[in-house]
């Protein structure tokens, strides 16, 4: 039996009930040939023909040697699956119309709507795609590698997350490209056509769930599933300018998902619309109950924003403005996250990495080292568990097409696993204590700027190292995190993340849904404003770090470098009198008296009791011949500090100079 329906263009869509052997046979045809592409605008069937794809459905139908196959599979639980496949031999290839996002096209149809008065399925009318490590019954899961498909059988059931979404009314239209075996964050897999970032075609899209991020960014689907081991959803979400959530570890079953590292793996998803992101969460996390409707506190991790450029921190100011409008100004607080970890986690005092946390390089370095240690521990666990899961298969397959970065995961020493697990357990406890039930943490999603396509390996390595230092916080603590686009800097997308405690996903998603429309309006205002500096939000941690660099350069008599560092501090926080006064001192040392006077005047405007600023301005004015004004400054310094020797000496010097 089959049903026959028109697609509006004279093409029939057929759904068959096939036996298992037939399903397997047709699945082999699917994997060895072409697959369909569904237009985001009109739902038209379009073709993607193997490695030599040239055209679209209309081209195929005009060709006399075309072959088309329609098949359907009946899945457990009432899910209907159908796939339409077109393929033909090609001599030429055109640019991909789906940005390389899809590796397989199929259709998983939802069950019929319930009869009134029962409400319709919550995801009715939404389309989605799934990363190619989610199982679909009777299809072979690719896991980012053709050799994997050749050596594995079709799945015997559909992944829990996929089936749950289809039962809730969503339609799955295909599988998306992923990095080889989930072992990279670049989004570049040489076994498939290039994956193009729709947000900025000159930059990488990110991975390993890059295909899903690209599908959403290009508007091909309403949302898409991915998995996140250590940034695999959050990083491509940031680079492709979409929302992306890593769910709390252990709250969405990974049944039917090929694992990378089970203690880190979670299900995540992408969307452009915060309401869609929230709806999907309500379906997948229906057992969760949100105890708090609105965040009462948002902690800004100032030290983490040191990974960004000054210009990107200006973009952050838009996010903070939106948070204050959405949640209230009183919710904003600041924290040095690295220092917090260093003070709370005894395991960080071990020599896990080459930079021991002993506090000798100052608090900022100690905090950075703490996050680096956590990142290294995360890498140890990921590699160790990947090795346990896949080492045998890699050796048995002769590893002919497996790149070196995947093979290197098998070389991880097991000696550090115990220490790394200790750090993971401590991170869970520390973040639970920090976030409580009503708190969100604001951090950058990734470092900046993202690498361009075909960048030098050193550029990618630096970006990856810094980004993993940020991403590991949630990977190791089991918390949930949403990456949120916050505009563009120098042509590439910028993103921040909100983090909630483990198990508070719906609280987080609700908060993001309240924030996102406010943020969009703030971005529009920011884009149309000519007064970017007026919207700048102070970043005290980053500013203090820059000031300390300036002080160190000043002590070494490298006054030009000192001026540069003090200027950076002012960029981060232009309301701090000390930064202007210190820069004025550096200008004095270079005999740039006009600049010194100007900076000290600004410092005094900000702080009428800044004695050093009065003394430095007096010295500058004396050198410029403005003796009366210099005399006034020295006298004001003595009013503030009656025993100040420098001021007294200055007055005596001026008196002798003026009156002999």
From TrEMBL:
Q: Which Gene3D superfamilies match?
A: Amidase signature (AS) domain, Tetratricopeptide repeat domain
Q: Which SUPFAM superfamilies match?
A: Amidase signature (AS) enzymes, TPR-like
Q: Where is the Amidase domain?
A: 121-506
Q: Which Pfam families match?
A: Amidase, TPR_11, TPR_8
TPR repeat residue intervals? 543-576, 577-610, 611-644
Known PROSITE patterns for this protein? TPR (PS50005)
Superkingdom assignment = Eukaryota
Keyword list (alphabetical) reads: Membrane, TPR repeat, Transmembrane, Transmembrane helix
Q: Which InterPro entries match?
A: Amidase_dom, AS_sf, TPR-like_helical_dom_sf, TPR_rpt
Task: Give me the segments passing through the membrane.
Answer: 66-87
Protein name, UniProt field: Amidase domain-containing protein
Species = Ceratopteris richardii
């Amino acid at each position: 039996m089959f049903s026959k329906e028109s697609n509006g263009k004279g093409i029939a869509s057929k759904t068959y009930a096939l036996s298992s052997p037939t399903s397997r046979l047709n699945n082999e045809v699917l994997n060895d040939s072409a697959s369909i592409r569904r237009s985001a605008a009109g739902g038209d069937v379009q073709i993607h023909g193997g490695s030599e794809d040239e055209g679209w459905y209309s081209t195929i139908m005009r060709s006399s040697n075309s072959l088309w196959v329609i098949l359907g599979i009946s899945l457990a639980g009432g899910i209907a699956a159908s796939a339409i496949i077109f393929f033909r031999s090609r001599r030429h290839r055109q640019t991909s119309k789906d940005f390389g996002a899809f590796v397989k096209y199929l259709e998983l149809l939802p069950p019929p709507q319930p009869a009134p008065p029962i409400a319709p399925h919550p995801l009715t009318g939404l389309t989605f795609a799934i990363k190619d490590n989610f199982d679909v019954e009777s299809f072979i899961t690719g896991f980012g590698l053709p050799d994997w498909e050749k050596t594995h059988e079709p799945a015997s059931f559909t992944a829990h997350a996929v089936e749950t979404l289809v039962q809730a009314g969503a339609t799955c239209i295909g599988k998306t490209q992923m990095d080889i075996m989930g072992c990279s964050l670049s989004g570049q897999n040489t076994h498939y056509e290039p994956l193009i970032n729709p947000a900025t075609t000159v930059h990488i899209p990110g991975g390993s769930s890059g295909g899903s991020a690209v599908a959403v960014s290009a508007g091909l689907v309403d949302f898409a599933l991915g998995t996140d081991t250590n940034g695999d959803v959050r990083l491509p979400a940031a680079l492709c300018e979409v929302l992306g959530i890593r769910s709390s570890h252990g709250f969405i079953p990974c049944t039917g998902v090929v694992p990378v590292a089970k203690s880190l793996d979670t299900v995540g998803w992408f969307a452009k619309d915060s309401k869609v992101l929230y709806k999907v969460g309500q379906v997948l996390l229906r057992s969760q109950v949100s105890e708090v409707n609105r965040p009462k506190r948002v902690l800004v991790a100032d030290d983490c924003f040191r990974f960004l450029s000054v210009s990107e921190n200006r973009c952050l100011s838009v996010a903070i403005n939106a948070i204050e409008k959405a949640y209230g100004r009183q919710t904003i607080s600041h924290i040095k996250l690295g220092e917090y970890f260093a003070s709370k986690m005894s395991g960080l005092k071990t020599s896990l990495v080459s930079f021991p946390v002993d506090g000798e390089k100052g608090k900022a370095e100690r905090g950075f080292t703490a996050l680096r240690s956590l990142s290294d521990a995360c890498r140890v666990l990921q590699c160790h568990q990947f090795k346990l899961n896949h080492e045998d298969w890699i050796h048995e397959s002769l590893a002919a097409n497996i790149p070196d970065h995947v093979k290197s995961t098998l070389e991880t020493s097991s000696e550090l696993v115990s220490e790394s697990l200790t750090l993971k357990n401590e991170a869970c406890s520390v973040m639970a204590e920090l976030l409580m039930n009503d708190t969100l943490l604001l951090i950058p999603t990734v470092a900046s700027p993202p690498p361009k396509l075909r960048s030098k390996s050193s550029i990618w390595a630096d970006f990856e190292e810094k980004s993993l230092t940020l991403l590991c916080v949630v990977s190791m603590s089991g918390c949930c995190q949403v990456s949120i686009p916050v505009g563009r800097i120098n042509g590439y997308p910028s993103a921040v993340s909100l983090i909630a405690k483990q198990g508070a996903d719906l609280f987080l998603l609700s908060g993001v849904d309240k924030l996102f429309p406010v943020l969009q309006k703030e971005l529009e205002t920011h884009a149309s404003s000519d007064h970017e500096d007026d919207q700048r939000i102070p970043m005290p941690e980053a500013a203090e770090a820059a000031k300390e660099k300036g002080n160190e350069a000043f002590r070494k008599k490298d006054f030009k470098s000192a001026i540069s560092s003090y200027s950076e501090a002012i960029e981060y926080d232009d309301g701090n009198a000390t930064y202007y006064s210190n820069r004025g001192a550096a200008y004095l040392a270079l005999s740039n008296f006009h600049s010194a006077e100007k900076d000290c005047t600004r410092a005094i405007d900000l702080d009428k009791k800044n004695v050093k600023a009065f003394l430095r301005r007096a010295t500058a004015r004396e050198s410029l011949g403005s003796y009366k004004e210099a005399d006034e400054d020295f006298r004001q310094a003595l009013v503030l500090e009656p025993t100040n020797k420098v001021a007294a000496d200055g007055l005596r010097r001026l008196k002798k100079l003026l009156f002999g």
